[in-house]
Hints:
Low-confidence stretches: none
Number of domains: 1
Largest sheet: 7 strands, parallel
Distance between the termini: 56 Å
CATH superfamily: NAD(P)-binding Rossmann-like Domain
Amino acid sequence: MADQPPQPPxxxxxxxxxxxxxxxxxxKFRGSLQDKVTIITGAAGAIxxxxxxxxxxxxxxxxxxxxxxxPPAELKERCLRFGASEVTFVKCNVxxxxxxxxxxxxxxxxxxRADILINNAGANGLGPLHAQAPEDFIxxxxxxxxGPYYLMRLLLPHFRQQRxxxxxxxxxxxxxxxxxxSTGYCSSKxxxxxLTACAQKELDIDGLGEEVHMYSxxxxxxxxxxxxxxxxxxxxxxxxxxAQSKFVNALDIYDDSxxxxxxxxxxxxxxxxxxxLRGKYFDVGQDLEDxxxxxxxxxxxxxxxxxxxxxxxxxxxxGVPEGGYRREAWGVEFPGF
Length: 337
């Protein structure tokens, strides 16, 4: 009897979460990132505040950025009370390279190092591509993609030199699906997911993957000021009439706790999943403990938790096609002439 090919590891469906659960209970991570200098962009919004308070519990030194609206004063008080070793607010427009350069310089001048970068600032409009002002589309790309790239590019040499660091890019489920009237947001988040994966592969090749690890994440459905504005009745009413019904109840799925994302990010920053999830796209709605319990499945299938395309006939998304490359037998001249 011929040897049977090895069977892929059995998989089970991870539990779905909308709030903090035992594996990421804040008390388990108290002081786990003590004095780690943590930059969080877009800290004035709901997701940013959840991140700031979660990393405060872990004892981080927080550098919290904002663009136009400063975070409320009570955020600093709460973070210090929760355990943050320091809290600094910095005004920064992440869409501009100069602003990102100033942020990194101020952080390094103040603390002498940086340990964790969380690219959370975002822009998200709603409207048809053909009618959107080009400057609005470009702004979405700049905030959602250029800003994270700038800060990663500025900090990666520092992380590589100190042989430690973590990047958490707040992406979106929109980066893995095509949503009409959200072209700029979907495109920039897809680019952010792949930026994360490509940069991690470079670190792995250089033997730094265990020391410098990065992730892209869907933070869950959170009623932030950005989503409330995007799906407001006024915004939806500006869509073509035939499209409005698709979005009138869009906010119904936005009911997750921002602390779910915050504590998953804390857990990943401590390195609990870096052996199998670094460079990957993770949806915080999946129970992290259940996912990490299936490490063999993750190792065997590199397409899990990453962007990929499926083709008819099983054509591989990367590498050489089965049977190898071969030249087709057609004429020397283009047959149309």
